[in-house]
Design a protein that fits this description.
Elements (H helix, E strand, L loop, with lengths): L1 H16 L16 H5 L2 H5 L1 H10 L4 H8 L10 H11 L7 E4 L6 E5 L2 E4 L24 E5 L9 H16 L4 E5 L4 H9 L3 E3 L4 H12 L3 E3 L5
Parallel strand pairs: 1-4, 1-6, 4-5, 6-7
Antiparallel strand pairs: 2-3
Length: 226
């Protein structure tokens, strides 16, 4: 009986050790739009803001990207420049799989076992969709789930339930799962770009990471296409 209680206590304790509390991105990154810099949207449509970026977001991937593409023939979606910027950071990633989630204000409800999303993310993945990975990746031991929050206007309970349901898919198979919320989108971008197996979310940010992952000779998975 005492042994059973001890095991339950250890399980609960390990659950909290591997969970980081919800955290907004650092103040330094308030209104930071790395994806819009990479794809050239701000350069083409918000030239005044583009000129301000190197000062407003000094020592970030966005400001360094702007500086480096000045002498590059390719200004938009220059993945070679992004790879160089991430290689400078010398970030190590020893996880078997990294899963990127697009959360924040995306989840608005739940009907039965299915989550509902805001209109532009209505085709977002359900937790059960992640079961497909086991058919394509063998011997999964460790999974890291990464997400970030740009603002606090989201349903914390629904968001946490969604994350927990995804984690359960893996823990039921004996896979170690941890959540990683650094509050630093630059760090997250480069950490994910070093993934051996990278599982994309929807959206441009994830697709940029995927291109760098492939340049590093590693695998990218789009759940919708499995």
């Amino acid at each position: 009986m005492y042994l059973l209680v001890l095991i339950l206590v250890l399980i609960v304790f390990s659950h909290y050790l591997t969970r980081e509390p919800f955290r907004l991105n650092n103040d330094k990154y308030k209104n930071y739009r790395l994806g819009d810099i990479i794809k050239g949207y701000i350069r083409k449509h918000e030239p005044k803001l583009y000129k301000e970026y190197p000062t407003k977001f000094k020592n970030t991937i966005a400001s360094d990207y702007i500086e480096m593409i000045k002498t590059e023939p390719i200004k938009d979606n220059n993945y070679h420049v992004l790879k160089k910027l991430c290689d400078r950071k010398k970030i190590l990633n020893n996880d078997d799989i990294v899963i990127h989630l697009r959360l924040s204000d995306a989840i608005i409800g739940k009907k039965g076992s299915k989550y509902t999303f805001i209109k532009i993310f209505r085709s977002s993945l359900q937790p059960s969709d992640y079961k497909k990975l086991f058919k394509h990746i063998k011997k999964i031991k460790r999974v890291t789930i990464i997400y970030g929050f740009h603002h606090d206007k989201y349903n914390k309970k629904l968001t946490q339930n969604y994350i927990d349901d995804i984690k359960k898919i893996f823990t039921e198979k004996g896979v170690e799962v941890k959540e990683k919320i650094s509050g630093d989108p630059d760090y997250d971008f480069c950490y994910m770009s070093k993934s051996k197996h990278f599982v994309m979310s929807g959206g441009g940010f994830s697709s940029f990471i995927a291109e760098v992952v492939k340049m590093n000779g590693n695998k990218v998975y789009s759940i919708k296409n499995l």
